[in-house]
Amino acid sequence: MRIRPRTPSPAALAVLVSLLASAAAMAAFDIISVDEEWSMRGQLHAEVAQKMPLVNDPAALDYLNRLGRQIAAQTPYGNRRWDFFIVRDDAVNAFNLPGGLVYVNSGLIKEARSLDELTGAMAHEIGHGAARHGTQLMTKAYGYNLIARLAMGRHPGQGRQLLAGLVGNGILNHYSRDAERAADRLGVHYAYQSGYDPRGMLDLFADLQKLQGRQPLKVEQFFSNHPLTRERIQNVSAEIATLPRNAALTRDSRDYQQFRARVH
After folding, report:
1. CA 188, CA 53: separation in Å to the nearest integer?
2. Model confidence over 40-75: pLDDT tens digits?
3. 164: closest CA among 242, 49, 14?
4. Is the dihedral angle over the CA atoms 9, 11, 12, 18 positive or is it negative?
C-alpha cells in the first residue's frame, strides 16, 4: 500500500509562508544548502546563455578563469568549481550567480585599464558569491512565491521555471547596500590575498565616475546595481588602509593587456 504524503492545509501553508517571509527579511537567512546551490549552477548558466551573447574565445576564457579561480581560492568555497564568462556587451557591468558563476561584460574589460582594476571588480563579485548573497535573495523569492524548498526538490519543473524568472528579471542582482558593503570588504581582502593590489578597485571607481560624465548610458546598469556613493568609496579606502603594505602586489601585466586587446 502506497502512502500519499498529506497536503498541507491552506492555513498551514499561510503560516509557513508567513514564517519564511519574516525570516527571509533577515540578511543571513538561507534555506538553500551549499550543495543545493552548486547543483543548480547548470540551469542558471543555461538561462544566461539563452539571454546573453557569451564570448566563445578559449584563450580569453582560459585567462579570465585562471584569474578568477586564483581569487576564488581565497574564499571558504575555493574547493568547489567556479566558472567565469565574458558577456559581449559594451555596457560596463559584471554579476555573480549562485554556484560559483561570475559574468564580466566586455565593456568592463575595455574600461578596466590595468589588471588590478579588473581583479578588483571580479573580487567584488566573488565576494557576493562567497557571502551567498544570491541564495539569500532566492530564499526571499521562494517565500514570496509559496514554494519554498519544494520547488527545487519534488517539483523540478517549477524549480526550473522559478530560476528562469529569477535570472530573466534580474532579481539575483538586486543586492542591499549592506550586501554591497560586504562584497567590497571581502573583495578587498580576496584581491590582496591573491597578490593583486586592491587599490585597483578604487582606480576603477574613479575611471567609471569619469566615464559617467562622458557616456552615462555605458555605466547606467553598473551604477544601478553598484551605486558609487561617497560612503562606499571611503569604506573601501579605509579597508585597504588596514592591510599591511606589500610592494610585491601586482598592478598590471603584459598578459592582461594582451587579453584586454583580444576581448575588445
Report:
1. 29
2. 899 889 989 999 999 999 999 999 999 999 999 999
3. 49
4. positive
